[in-house]
Amino acid sequence: HAGRPARLRPMEAVSDSPLLRAARGESVSRTPVWFMRQAGRSLPEYLALREGVAMLDACMDPALVTEITLQPVRRYGVDAAIFFSDIVLPLKAVGVDLDIKPGVGPVVASPVRTLADVAAIPDLDPSHVPFITEAVRTLVGELGSTPLIGFAGAPFTVASYLVEGGPSKDQARTKAMMFGAPEVWDALMRKIAGISAAYLEVQVAAGASAVQLFDSWAGALTPTDYATHVMPHSAAVLERAGRLGVPRIHFGVGTSNLLTLMGEAGADVVGVDWRTPLADAIERVGDRAVQGNLDPALVFAPTEVMLQRAAEVIEAGRYARGHIFNLGHGVIPSTDPDQLARLTDFVHTYEPRG
Ligand code: 1CP
């Protein structure tokens, strides 16, 4: 289905779209589906646009952001667009010296270590990100009844880049600050929570109709440490987002042990990675919707195998308050787009057994 036009249904309001209905726990005509990291990474039309353009420059160019965000919606007919940006973009916008290095990820020039380092980071104000407002407004006009999901990084995951100075496997320095310098940690988490909440507010004010808080690396924590040192700050972001009246999705990787807490932090929808069976996740999050959770590597398996496992995910999702189909983490860069097109069509046309 490459190149087919976005399915714009002007008669259908965004608020009645399958994604937003599922997020609110309402009945749906079909299971909504989108893919984390659907924008960027794997599409040839994306790679062509990005040629010679640095990641952060792309994020600050409203025309590029609009086009890249729309590409997967056109190609797959997914039920949501995810805003093309990055969790470190708001830090860049307030003046933190950082870059996104190809093949590496975010790299921070002067890692944060002291209270003075934290105090030197300005709070985010909408005037720091006029290009975000412009891109969101244009996108919402183009998307018609397809919702745009805005996003931000959760305080722990963003802190891990600021403290480590770049991607880290063990988050050792981040945890050293969390355990050993609670004053600095608290100040840093409050600072990031304020920036992330303000960044979500800008996106919703411009027309985003759902938000996702990415706490990708929260799975590195024990439930007690998460509850004590991290959850209150994520809850502060989700509380501010809740005042915007849009559904809040809360996602992390390796968070089997944390799913109950991540729901209680103030999520309407809890994102589930592929390691936790969806039925177990549903039990843990109680009366909330779930999002997930096909293993992104299954897209590399034979189509029938992928679709069989997708059917199992859809069947499990029927017992949730609401279910948004997704992968358990981002699209792997070498993914074949045709497999994602088949997967999207399968989810859309799936007929429940019995
Ligand atoms: O669909 C999309 O791609 C939407 C845009 C998007 C999102 C939602 C990007 C573009 N990044 C993110 C979020 C993000 N960024 C997360 C949370 C989601 C997740 O867990 O997948 C995280 C942890 C980051 C940090 C980041 N940015 C990494 C991970 C590095 C690590 O620590 O292992 C990387 C590689 C990036 C760069 C990046 N962000 C986005 C793109 C398309 C890229 C590749 C950049 C390039 O082309 O150089």
Automatic annotation (TrEMBL):
Q: Name one GO biological process term.
A: protoporphyrinogen IX biosynthetic process
Q: Which residues form a coiled coil?
A: none
| Record site: Transition state stabilizer | 86
Catalytic activity reads: uroporphyrinogen III + 4 H(+) = coproporphyrinogen III + 4 CO2
Q: GO molecular-function annotation terms?
A: uroporphyrinogen decarboxylase activity
Q: What class of enzyme is it?
A: lyase
Q: Which GO terms describe its cellular component?
A: cytosol
List its EC numbers: 4.1.1.37
What the entry lists under PROSITE patterns is as follows: UROD_1 (PS00906), UROD_2 (PS00907)
Q: Where is the Uroporphyrinogen decarboxylase (URO-D) domain?
A: 32-41, 149-165
What is this protein called in UniProt? Answer: Uroporphyrinogen decarboxylase
Source species: Nocardioides euryhalodurans
Q: Recall the taxonomic lineage recorded for the source organism.
A: Bacteria, Bacillati, Actinomycetota, Actinomycetes, Propionibacteriales
Q: Which gene encodes it?
A: hemE
